[in-house]
Write a structure and sequence with these properties.
Layout: H1 14-46, H2 86-109, E1 113-114, E2 117-118, H3 126-140, H4 146-157, H5 163-168, H6 172-192, H7 202-210
Antiparallel strand pairs: 1-2
Helix pairs in contact: 2-3, 2-6, 3-4, 6-7
Length: 213
């Protein structure tokens, strides 16, 4: 015997379908509200804050971007530094050398004394500076023999250009002669600088005149 046959179930009525749809929509809406409420609660618990990004302003050192590279800063060329010419350097060193020689010349005119008391005027001062400048300018003006003569002169006479030698009194006249020798160097440098050579050390001239020199 076969199984009894039953008629297929009848489809739900349209009104029932509409009612079920409304319930589904209501349930979905309630679910969404629940999710939003949960997100807000979580956000409040974590103190999450939102920030807006503000692009930084370009610095002064930046200029228009290079082609195809929007964030590359243009290299600012260094300022050109003007340096003295070789001739200007030689003239400046000659003038400084002349100043040191003039200072030593004046000390010798006064017989290495201040108020009649022996001084250390030429112990590690004008003589050291003069020799250093003579060496420096000689490197830039090697054909002028004057600089080596200045160095040799100081090296020869330094042993008696001390306070002890001055206090002895035995070199007083020699100091005046030595001042005249330095005066020759000073005048040669003044001539090299293209200037007139004033007679600034009158005591030397007076002494040499007295000696018939």
């Amino acid at each position: 015997m076969g199984l009894p046959r039953f008629p297929p179930p009848l489809p739900p009525s349209p009104l029932k379908l509409i009612e079920n749809s409304k319930k589904g929509v209501a349930n979905l809406s309630n679910g969404i509200k629940t999710i939003r409420s949960g997100i807000k609660t979580l956000s409040d618990a974590l103190h999450v804050e939102s920030y807006s990004y503000v692009a930084p302003k370009p610095s002064v050192a930046q200029s228009k971007p290079l082609s195809g590279a929007s964030d590359v800063a243009t290299v600012i060329p260094a300022k050109v530094i003007e340096v003295p010419t070789e001739e200007e350097t030689v003239k400046a060193l000659q003038d400084r050398l002349r100043e040191q020689i003039t200072g030593a010349e004046d000390d010798l005119v006064h017989k290495l004394k201040i108020n009649g008391k022996a001084c250390t005027c030429l112990e590690g001062r004008h003589n050291v500076q003069a020799k250093a400048l003579a060496r420096e300018v000689m490197e830039k003006d090697p054909d002028n023999p004057l600089y080596q003569k200045v160095i040799d002169w100081f090296n020869t006479n330094e042993p008696i250009m001390t306070a002890k030698a001055s206090a002895s009194g035995q070199y007083d006249e020699k100091y005046i002669v030595m001042a005249g020798e330095l005066g020759n160097f000073r005048r040669a440098l003044t001539k090299a600088l293209g200037q007139a050579s004033p007679s600034v050390i009158q005591p030397v001239a007076d002494f040499l005149k007295e000696q018939g020199k």
